[in-house]
Design brief:
CATH superfamily of one domain: Tetratricopeptide repeat domain
Strand content: under 5%
Shape: elongated
Distance between the termini: 46 Å
Order of helices and strands: HHHHHHHHHHHHHHH
Largest sheet: none
Radius of gyration: 22 Å
Helix content: 55-70%
Number of helices: 15
Length: about 300
Amino acid sequence: MRTDRPLTTVLLLAAFAAVGCSKPFEDSEKKTRQEPPVSALAKPVAVPNAVDLKDEEGTSGIVPIRRAGPVSFADADAAYQAKSYKEATVLFEQYTEQRPTNAWGHFMLGLSAWKAGDDTKAESAFEEALKIDPNHLKSLVNLSRVLIDQRRFDDALVRLTHAGEVDPNSVDVQRLLGRVYAAEHKTDDAVNAYRRAIALDAKDGWSLNNLGLLLLEQGRADEALPLLAKAVLLRKDVPEFHNNLGMALEHTGRFGAAAAAYRDALTADPGYGKAQQNLARVEAVKVNGEEPFDATTAAR
């Protein structure tokens, strides 16, 4: 008697195994900046809405040299905007020595250090900002991200609970609560937190993606599909979104559409290894009569 599984079943099992390997990298969470009070600035500083986290100049092995003389907030912020995060860290260190009571200086030091890969210095700077202003929302939120990176989920939860009291309508807070609960295997709490984030901002692609991925990991692909489809429509530049949509399509038997989603992931990032592996797997499946998939319709 034959004991071989059908090819589609084998591929689906492989796809399920791949779900846990496609965790969300919430790059939008590393873009949260806010301009400090004007009085803290030497001149107005433009605050970008987005930062490309790839090939950051600040991650090079070159150690920046401290500048002689005073450093303005604008000087340090210019290095940050240029993505020279190590240089920005040094400059904001100098700035906070000059302006030790400015919470925004310490916040930007923490953000620069975090992006430069120095979690210890980042945590210390965010804590210093919170000594000056215990309700400094951006410091609470970004300190929680540093703690999540270190898998210190209980500590992160304390900070996020406080942040939620400061601003009950913060999408970032709810999304991060979702991440903490998911990491602690509190699935219902995680789902509720992500749903609250989406209720606050229906266009928050990362909350849609994270909730969809969480449901996908639970084997609830049909529920995940519309969330992931909407995330893709909102942010076609994020390869993870396309890849996760591909997995949801694959799990619901739409292999042709899954292949198209994996190709879209590779268009967004040609070097995305997981999408390459997933595409190679589904291209081996020959399916006749598959219904066309429309992301806009699915997202409704």
